[in-house]
Amino acid sequence: MRKKLIAGNWKMFKTNSEALQLANQVKIKTTEISKTKIVMCPPFTALAAVADVVRGTKIGVGAQNLYWEKEGAFTAEISAGMIKSTGAAYVIIGHSERRQYFGETDATVNKRLISALENGLTAIVCVGETLNEREANVTRDVVGKQIRGAFNGITASDFSQIIVAYEPVWAIGTGKTATPDQAQEVHAYLRQVMADEKGREIAESLQILYGGSVKPENASELLSQKDIDGALVGGACLNADSFGAIIHSAEAL
């Protein structure tokens, strides 16, 4: 049975002192959590500090992006090895904001994923459609293409280090949320694509998270769907009370 995972993407929020405060608050509010995995993804500047705060707990730490080269003259980029050296064990790859604002493509998602895997990081690979694509009824085409592109050349043994996050772009930071039925439909489709591409065993063991305006008010209904294995939380993870409430909703299932 797949375990629940709640990850928080802090995006470009929190100075180091603010990050330390939030990490400590989340740690306190989740001391009794035993079944649900928790991951916090602060900005690069706070990775090491947050990793120190949660060391020895069940809370994992992840970065929000990485560059695929090991090192070199790539000003402002961060490698997988640098991320790992901070104590982080996860990395988000292909978030819609990276695709929208910074030119991320399925091909570069694949290159980043390969680098993450080679360095022992667990990758949270994001896929999702825009509002125009949903209204044009091409959601399956879009997310299917994204997931196939991301996993091009990825072998069966790599999937122990891979998590998928379905994030409908139209529901990120908008207050809109896919209905539980809408989210479940896409999650089930992604699992079927994985079964067709990589085999039923991998598809059934793969964790697929939902992301897109997840809040304490809707978390339980979303997380209770058969193929939704957790959440990649945006705005609600910036407050320890709301993030903790979502984690406790997952733990209660």
Q: How would you sum up this structure, described in words?
A:
With 253 residues, the chain is α/β, with parallel strands linked by helices. The protein has one domain (5-252): Aldolase class I (TIM Barrel). 44% of the residues lie in helices and 15% in strands. The protein has 11 helices and 8 strands. It has helices spanning 16-29, 47-54, 80-85, 96-102, 106-118, 131-135, 139-150, 180-198, 200-205, 216-223, 240-252, and strands spanning 5-9, 37-41, 59-63, 90-93, 122-127, 162-166, 208-210, 230-233. The protein has an 8-stranded parallel beta sheet with strand order 7-6-5-4-3-2-1-8. Helix 1 (16-29) links the parallel strand 1 (5-9) and strand 2. Helix 7 (139-150) packs across helix 8 (180-198). The chain is globular, with a radius of gyration of 17 Å. The mean pLDDT is 96.
